[in-house]
Amino acid sequence: MSKLTLNKQYFGLAVALGAVYWIFNPAAAVFIGIAFAMLCKPQTSFITKRVSSYPLQIGIVVLGLTIQFTLVQEIAVSYFPWITLFVFTALFLGWILYKVTGIEKNQAILLTAGSAICGGTAMAAIAPIIKANSKDLMISLTIVFVLNAIAIVFFPIIGDMLNLTAVEFGAWVSLAVHDTSSVVGSALEFDPEAVKTAATLKLGRTLWLIPIVFFAGLLFNKTESKQRFRFPLFILFFIAALLLQFLVTLPASVIANLELLSKLFLLFGLFCVGSQANLTDFKEISLKPIFFSLVMWFCAIGGSLVILFYSGF
Predict the structure, then answer these.
(1) Under 8 Å between Cβ of 57 and 202
(2) CA gap 134, 208 in Å, rounded
C-alpha cells in the first residue's frame, strides 16, 4: 500500500472518529464504521482491523467497575435458569431447521451456535472443530453482522414501543441479540443503565460456550478442540472488575468518570466492528442461510419477550 493511500485512510479515520464522538450514538458508530470500510477500504493490517473487538472488551471490563455486586447477584439468581432454557431451546430449534430447510450442515451448526450463545465468537470457536471452510464461516459471520446492525437501530425503538424499563430492555437484548457488541450497543442506545443488565446477562450466556465447545470436540475432533479453542478472557476480567467493585467502594465521581470512559471505549469498539464490513462477502450469501438465520432470530426475539414477561423480572 502506498504512503499516500495510507495517509488518506488515516485522514478518513480521523474524520470518522470525529463524527462518532460528535454524534455520540452507538448505532451511528456502527454505520459510520461501515461507511468508513466502504469508502476507505482499509487493509487487514489497518489499525481498526487489528484492534478488532478489543476496545469493546475494554469498555465492558471498565463497565464492570460501575455495576453494584448486589445487582449482579439478583440478575444471576433470577435469570440463569432462563438463560439455560433459552440456549438449549435455540440449539434444538437449529437442529429442527437444519432437517427442514436442507441447509448445508456446517452453516447450520455455525448459525445455530451463533444464535444460541454469542454470535461471531461462538462461530469462530466452533468452526475449526467442525472443520468448516472459510466460505461457510464468512457467510455465517456476514449474516450475523447484518442482523446485529439491524438490532442496534430497531431494538431501542421496539423497547420504547413496549414501554420496557432499562432493566427489562437489558434482559431482553441479552437474549435476543447475537453478539456482545450489538447487545451493548442496543442497550446503550436505549438507556445507559440498561447496559449493566445487558452486559451481565450476555456474558452469563457466553459462558455456555465452554460446554458447547467441549461437547463439539467430543463429537468431531478432540485434539482440534483442545488446541484451538480460546475462551474470551475479557469475561474473566469483567468478573474480576465486579469483585473489585464489591470489595472496594468507589466514590460517585470516580464511577461517573468510569462510566464515561466505558462509553468512549464502547463507541470506538462499535466503530471498529462496523469497519469490518466487506461488500464482497454479501455477494456470496444464498437464501437458505438467510432464511435459517431469520427464523432463528425471530424465534429468539419472541421467545425472549415471553421469558421476560413470564419471569416477572
Answers:
(1) no
(2) 24
**Cα separations in angstroms, 153 against 52, 158, 159, 273, 278:** 21, 10, 11, 15, 20
Rounded to an integer, what distance in angstroms lies between the CA atom of residue 170 and that of residue 307?
A: 13
Rg (CA), the chain: 19
Question: Are the beta carbons of 96 and 302 closer than 8 angstroms?
Answer: no
> By the 8 A CB rule, do 94 and 115 touch?
yes
Cβ neighbours around 247 below 10 Å, total? 8
Q: 452486559: which residue's cell?
A: 199
Give the residue-averaged pLDDT of 106-114: 93
Q: pLDDT tier at 227 (50, 70, 90 boundaries)?
A: very low
The closest of 152, 80, 79, 147 to 111, measured between CA atoms, is 147
**DSSP track, 104-148:** -HHHHHHHHHIIIIIHHHHHHHHHHHHT--HHHHHHHHHHHHHHH
Name the residue with cell 460528535: 22
| Per-residue pLDDT tens over the stretch 118-153 | 888 788 778 878 888 877 888 888 888 889 889 999
In percent, the amount of the chain with pLDDT more than 90 equals: 34
**List of long-range contacts for 216-221, beta carbons under 8 Å, 24+ apart:** 216/126, 216/129, 216/130, 217/129, 220/129, 220/130, 220/131, 221/129, 221/131
Out of 9-13, 48-52, 209-213, give the one with best mean pLDDT.
Answer: 9-13
